[in-house]
Amino acid sequence: MASDGSTSxxxxxxxxxxxxxxxxxxxxxxxxxxxxxxRLGIVEKIxxxxxxxxxxxxxxxxxxxxxxxxxxALAALGVLAERAPGRFAVAPAGEALDSRRPESLHAFVxxxxxxxxxxxxxxxxxSVRTGETSFDGIFGTDFFGHLAEQPELSEQFNSAMSxxxxxxxxxxxxxxxxxxxxxxxxxxxxxGTLLAPVLRAHPALHGIIFDRAEGLAQAGATLERxxxxxxxxxxxxxxxxxxxxxxxxxxLKSVIHDWNDERCTDILRHCRRVIPDDGRLLIIEPVLPDVxxxxxxxxxxxxxxxxxxxxxxxxxxxxxxxxxRGAGFAVRSVTQLPAPSRFxxxxxxxx
Length: 351
Hints:
This protein is an alpha/beta fold. About 45% of the residues lie in helices and about 15% in strands. It has 16 helices and eleven strands.
């Protein structure tokens, strides 16, 4: 009992501004509830039926009372629905945690509730003081170096990036004139989730996916499912040392925000060396508004994640233009993709 008569960890009354602050303070707990649900496979085990805590605890080898408490929390967060006392079904929001669904965010939730990703967030204040990434000091290597040594985590990362890329990939073929090019190179293209819809929509277009070997690990399967094996080459390499020749359009999605200005300039200069004079560079990234917009709060959280874990940053339009100028490109246009994607297309040409 505290000196004011309250019990320890008592949640403040939720009214007005206090409600907002309380929800934000408890946000990390809510995230861990989602993480536990994905690791236990709760949504998959409930399926289209209703299940009790006893049934799910047996299926998950869990303690029944503790399982009941987790299920109540998931229902309070809108992931499950308690249809009758003690009987739980999957709510519409919970369907996004179902790993069997094409639109699932299961891997995304697993990644961003993984202790490896969360550990550096404990030192956010230190990163703010120093401007340095905390991850490297904790793990003795940078984030991508750590991934290269952890195959399971690397696969989880690739799956998560594929899941969050899907909305952008679906919107991309109709949002940009790919038909005027012969070959598109996706630099850091991972498993091919972004490039496959573009190639399907433009039968005369050929593709190159350029990434490190671990990044390309699932790309062959993606291309095979899409029937594109003969139209796309997989090239292993490091975009800090070069870029593949032979394309007239070079695409960088979610690459530039991973790195500081100096390293981004190196990546862009490698593209500039191989791009033809009439070629184009297409950077696909969120673009920070000139003035903070709370409606896109996720971009600002991503920016801080870049600070503590990766070493990169999100950027404004002017900052992208400055980067491009430094590497021999001139930005021609910036186009926001339609919702639900939060990405923009930054088109640049050789200067």
